[in-house]
Every structure is written in structure tokens, then in C-alpha cells.
Amino acid sequence: MNKTLPLIATLATLAAYPAAAQDAAAPAEAAAAVSADVVYIFNTLLFLMGGFLVMWMAAGFAMLEAGLVRSKNVTTQLFKNISLFAIAGIMYWLIGYNLMYPGDGWTVQGVIGQIFSPKGLDAVGAGNAEDGYSAGSDFFFQLMFCATTASIVSGTLAERVKLWPFLIFTVILTGLIYPIEASWQWGGGFLSEMGFSDFAGSTLVHAAGGFAALAGAIVLGARTGKYRPDGRMQPMPGSNLALATLGTFILWLGWFGFNGASQLAIGSVSDAADVSRIFVNTNMAASGGAIAAIIVTQLLYGKIDLTMVLNGALAGLVAITAEPLTPTVFAAILIGGVGGALAVFVVPMLDKLKIDDVVGAIPVHLVAGIWGTMIVPATNEGTSFVTQAMGVAAVGAFVFVISFIVWTVLKATMGIRVSKEAEISGLDISEMGMEAYPDFVQAK
After folding, report:
1. Contacts of 411 (CB under 8 A, 6+ apart)
2. CB atoms near residue 176 (< 10 Å)
3. Which of 8, 86, 178, 228 has its CA 20 to 30 A from that of 398?
4. What is the mean pLDDT of the chain?
5. What is the C-alpha to C-alpha distance for residues 218 and 120, in angstroms, rounded to an integer?
């Protein structure tokens, strides 16, 4: 074999490269002019990939909560996270999706439409390129947001709530409460018409979950021994900070799907560029939140609190979710940083009010979610602070009041809190009959 042939071919390729590069530098319009089929494929892939990244966040919530509760309650938290995800899937298919996107009206068939006329899937082998993406990919992606809302409630009420009342509330939250309030914006409802802006759900998902958790925490009450008679707070450290840290990294990763796929399109050069911009801003906001929590805890307590840093990163992610596209990178860091600082400051405020939030979901999702929504007009022309405030108030009032009523009814009818003895021994034994760490003796 002649060894000079590969060298000749390589030189020929290099010689031709400038011409090839010149051809590639054709007008952007020509380069972006892809067929409707290609756009449909790329957009569908964005929804599906974003959806399974957000689904992976369910694992993040499970690990975060398992690490932040005491070891005698870990099995119960893991069960709650997998069961709420399954419930969300059924309820969103059965009622939620059509309720959130009512189409021609909220008729009986429109509300419980998945039984009679499912619009969550295309027919086998079918698909309409003119739609821009497959119906199944849209349903799958939107379902993940619904499940995320329920996950937020789980951690706040940990270590003292009964399982069955919690599961019943999850049915109502995922089937009715979340789809209704989300329809006001993403289903073309009155918030959308008035100009409210919430790109990926700082309020519609995170603050909504936070309001539901707050209502539950108030009705349920604090854990036994959490607040002493003299008003001091009794620390109740989590069982495994390694798991909590792993959960935070999983949530951080999943957020790229949460925010990135909320662009809802990647079939053009501009959309692809915007998705990448969203990724960068999402990451930098989380970094800003973590750094802010490091600084604030050092200044307040003289030592860095890892759990606060974890929640600071998550608060930064929640804050940027309302508008991850238009801010500059520096602005994204500031938005995330303020979110992280708020999460640290709100924790002692809740303790003064004797509102027991085991994992810090209310500061992270509710407070940072409101902050992120309210700061949108600073980086997004065409929105107003008044409109943003009205949207937050509408969602907050609806979710909190309905959740409070549901929790109160459950408390009066079947009880929502385990007995004091069960709480002391741990919910793993009283509610589940199995322990996550059976080889260890629990200290009471």
C-alpha cells in the first residue's frame, strides 16, 4: 500500500477547507431553513429530554429529603416521593392535562377527557409536523412539572404527617389545584391575557408548592420537641448530609431540563442559541445562590452551614426559573444570589413563627419563587411589577386557601398527624413497618 496516498488526501482536504468554510458561511436564513419535519423532530426531542431531566429531579427530591430527615423517618420519605410521582402521573392524565389546557371549554369530556378522547398521545405511527412537536412529548414534559409541585410539599411535612392523608392531598393537588392555577398562565387564562410572565414556573410550580406546604405546616403543627416552652428552637439534624448533597446536585442537573426545555422550541438557530443561554443563566444563578448562602451563614453564625448552602443553590435555581432567558450572566448571578440569601434569612423567621419546615422548602420554593417572579420586569421589557404582584397574589391566595381547607377537612375527618408515640419511635416503624437503617439502634 502506497503510504503517500493518505498524505496527499490530507493535503487536498486542507486545501479545500477555505472553500468549504466559505460555503458554510451562507446567509443565516438559508442555514436555518429546515423542513417542518426536522423542526418537529428537534422540538419533540427537546420536550422528551427536558422531561426525563425533570423526572430525574424526583430522585433529587427523594435523596435531599432522605438526607435531611432523621434516620427513623427515611423509609417513609422515600415512599412518599415515589408514591406522589405515581399519583401525579395518573391524576394528570385523568384530569389535570385537559384541565390545564381546556381547549374549547371545561365540559365533562374536556375535563375528564383522557378517558373518552385522550389528547396526550398521537396515534401509532402518526404525527403532524404542522403542530411543531408531538402531543405525547408535550404531555410528558408538562406532567413532570405537576409532579414537582407535589414533591415540594413532601419535605415540609416530614416526620409527623400520616401517609394516607398526605396521599389524598396529593391526589387533589396534582389533579385539580395545580392544573387550575397553571391554566391561568400556560393554558391561555386570565394571567396570560393580563401580561403576567413566569417562564418556567417560579410561581406556578415552586411558589404554588410552597403555598400548599405552608398551609399544611400550619394545620399540621410542628414536630414534638421542635420548639421548647421558653421559645427556643431545638435543632433536629438530618441523618445523611452526603445524600442531601447528592440530591442537590441531581436537582441542579435536572433544572437544565426544567428551564431549558421551557423554551418549547429548538428547531431554529435562534431557539438553539436561546436554550444554551438559558442553560448558562440557570447554572450561574445556582452558583450565585450557593455563594450567597456561604457568605451569609459565615457572617451570621461564624461558621458555614452546609444545609443552608444546599438550599441556597436551590433557591438560586428557583429564583431564575421565572425568567432564565433575558438576564445577562451577571444579572443571573445577582438574582440567584438574592434568592440564596433570602432562603437563609427566612429559616429563623419561620422558627420564630413556630412553622416547622423540615427541609426548608418554604424559604427555597415559596420565598425565592416570589422573588424570582417579582424581579422579572427588571430584565424583561413589557412586564410590570404590578402585574407580577397580581399574578403571585392570585396563585398564592388560590393555592393556600384551597390547600388549607383540604388539610383542615382531612384533619377533622381522618386525622393528619401520627401519635406522639409513633412520632418518637419514627414513622418508618409506625407507618411503614420497616427501617431504612435496620442495623442501627435509634436514639430517642
Report:
1. 165, 219, 220, 417
2. 17
3. 86
4. 89
5. 37
Query: In one letter, which amino acid is 284?
Result: M
In this structure, are residues 242 and 390 in contact, taking their beta carbons and an 8 Å threshold? no
Angle, CA of 352, 178 and 78, to the nearest 5°: 65
- Distance CA(194)–CA(411), nearest Å, equals 37
CA–CA gap between residue 250 and residue 306 (Å, rounded): 16
Tens-place pLDDT, residues 95-124: 899 889 876 444 555 555 555 555 556 667
Q: Domain extents for the chain?
A: 35-432
DSSP string of 297-333, one letter each residue: HHHHHSS--HHHHHHHHHHHHHHHTT-SSSS-HHHHH
**Which pLDDT score is estimated for 59?**
97
Topology, domain 35-432: Ammonium transporter fold (1.10.3430)
The set of long-range contacts for 77-81, using a CB threshold of 8 Å and a minimum separation of 24, is 77/154, 77/155, 77/158, 78/436, 79/163, 79/432, 80/154, 80/163, 80/166, 81/151, 81/154
pLDDT at residue 34, rounded to an integer = 82
Predicted TM-score (pTM) of this structure: 0.89
Angle (CA) 348-62-76 rounded to 5° is 90
Distance between CA atoms of 288 and 305, rounded to whole angstroms?
16
Q: Select from 191, 156, 146, 117 the least CA-distant residue to 55.
A: 146
Residue 323: left (phi > 0), alpha (psi -120 to 50), or beta?
A: beta
Q: What is the pLDDT of residues 424-443, one digit of tens each?
A: 999 999 999 999 888 765 55
Banded pLDDT at 231 (limits 50, 70, 90): confident
